[in-house]
Amino acid sequence: MALRVGLEQSAYEALEATSEVARAAKLKSFSPNARIVQEGDVESPDMSVKAIVKHVLVIFLLYDAAMHLLVEDAVVAETQIDQNAAVTLNYGCYPNDFYLLDYGFVVTSNPYDQVELSYDVFLYESEPDIFCYDPDLVTAFQVSLGGPDIVDGRLLAALRVLLAADPETVGKHDLKTLMSLGTEAPLGPTVEASALRTVLALCAIALQHFHTKIMDDQAVLKGEPPLTTQLAVQFRLQKKLMLVDIMQNLSRRIKTLAPEKSTA
């Protein structure tokens, strides 16, 4: 059986939806003929096609042992598949962190990739045990850049409110509007431009925290490094390129801001 164990680029180019309905429709058009499961009776004869997925990278052995102690990974056919036919797998819509840790690959130009920003590093360091066992608490102290929304709605709403000079204008809009990055500036073009410039600054700070530049990573990859090094550099490079794309996107939005774009 030939397994095409990667996300097809054409599928990812199609996944640029900005709403749950649109994303669901485009995922349906992708029509994968197999899925990955981590539970159930993988030895069942009812499965037309089954292949145990092996994690061969040493770097992931300990993680794999912890995650799959009680279950096995299996590729399960959704429809009848002829012998030796290629199997197209849908790994879902996730950031590269998930793909690298769970499957051992990195998706180029992943529209669902993100960079997470933490509010208070000292808080994490002072109470590491609490944050380790409570993922929801970690999420509450983080915002993200990237993905379909480009900017975390909580961050965008907070910046707009903090930069607004008129509380009455803020009160005219609901939270959903303040969290949305659309074509309109809910609190006026001046506030919008200031909020987007602040996000631009955050992107620049995030880029500065990398110890290498984009061209350095590209040079390493051209040298055909070992697989584990290649994956690590690809992962790092994709985060940087995503931040650059966000900065370019926000810069274009700032240039298009005009008084008539305001709904305040």
Automatic annotation (TrEMBL):
Domain spans labelled Rubisco LSMT substrate-binding: 139-242
GO annotations under biological process? methylation
Question: What InterPro entries would the database entry show?
Answer: Rubisco_LSMT_subst-bd, Rubisco_LSMT_subst-bd_sf, SET_dom_sf, SETD3_SETD6_MTase
Q: Name one GO molecular function term.
A: protein-lysine N-methyltransferase activity
| Pfam annotation, one family | Rubis-subs-bind
Looking up Gene3D superfamilies in the UniProt record yields:
Rubisco LSMT, substrate-binding domain (3.90.1420.10)
Know the name of this protein? Rubisco LSMT substrate-binding domain-containing protein
The answer on whether this UniProt entry bears the keyword DNA damage reads no
Keyword annotations of the record:
Methyltransferase, S-adenosyl-L-methionine, Transferase
